[in-house]
From TrEMBL:
The keyword DNA-binding applies. This is Crp/Fnr family transcriptional regulator. Keywords: DNA-binding, Transcription, Transcription regulation. The lineage of its organism: Bacteria, Bacillati, Actinomycetota, Actinomycetes, Bifidobacteriales. One of its GO terms (cellular component) is cytosol. It comes from the Bacteria. Residues 158-231 form the HTH crp-type domain. Residues 21-123 form the Cyclic nucleotide-binding domain.
């Protein structure tokens, strides 16, 4: 980790205006928080925060990708989610009355991952001055909870190929790059991590990937996947 110059932002833009939690905030209101923002950059594999920590920071992802992971008592690792620029990380301990501990670790997926953070006291003091913003934040957090509930439901009711198809479509909508052949999705995940994201074993997910490839729906290209027929993946995700 390297600390950047406090409050120095690329292109002199206010990062708060590009995050989901603050998208309804006026520029003038967001400017009030700038003196309280801290920034740092991380290289691939470095921890931004760790499971079990009791800090009271909310992080804003400015550049790069970050994965959230949990580790079991026997040191098995579970990939929970992937986050991209403009998203908020680690808000649970900030809004938890007990203040923690953190339920997951955040790990940079690429070099030059830039984050900013706010301490809870500074954020809450600002919310006291702008209580309407708290409602917007609750709406965003409710949508995140809805997505978590949907993922739990998928694990219970959907088979592995359906979950894989839905995961590929989600990654494609967030990170996909149009190419001549279709949509290239540079997920930058190992086979084990992709299986964890789907919620299955590596062997089962590889079997489903091979089936999708044989049907001509996708092609694998290192740590990227090219989606040729998104419609077929949509249909498979609904079976």
């Amino acid at each position: 980790m390297s600390l950047d110059t406090p409050n120095a932002f690329a292109d002199e833009e206010n990062i708060l205006l590009h995050t989901a939690l603050f998208k309804q905030v006026s520029p003038a209101e967001a400017e009030e928080l700038l003196p309280h923002l801290h920034r740092a950059s991380f290289d691939k594999g470095e921890y931004i925060f760790s499971e079990g920590a009791t800090d009271h920071r909310m992080y804003l992802l400015e550049r790069g990708r970050v994965k959230l992971i949990r580790t079991s008592a026997d040191n098995r690792v579970q990939l929970l989610s992937i986050h991209a620029s403009g998203e908020v990380l680690g808000e649970i301990p900030v809004f938890d009355p007990n203040g923690g501990p953190r339920t997951a670790s955040a790990v940079a997926m690429s070099n030059g991952t830039h984050v900013a953070w706010l301490e809870r006291d500074a954020l809450f003091a600002w919310l006291d001055e702008h209580p309407r913003v708290a409602i917007d934040m609750l709406q965003v957090m409710a949508n995140r909870q809805r997505a978590n509930n949907e993922r739990i439901s998928d694990l219970v009711f959907m088979d592995v190929p359906a979950r894989l198809a839905k995961t590929l479509l989600n990654l494609g909508s967030r990170f996909g790059e149009p190419v001549e052949e279709g949509l290239k999705v540079p997920h930058d995940l190992t086979q084990e991590e992709l299986a964890q994201l789907v919620g299955s074993s590596r062997e089962t997910v590889n079997k489903a990937l091979m089936d999708f490839s044989n049907r001509g729906w996708i092609a694998r290209d290192g740590r990227s996947i090219v989606i040729f027929q998104p419609g077929m993946l949509i249909r498979r995700s609904r079976r």
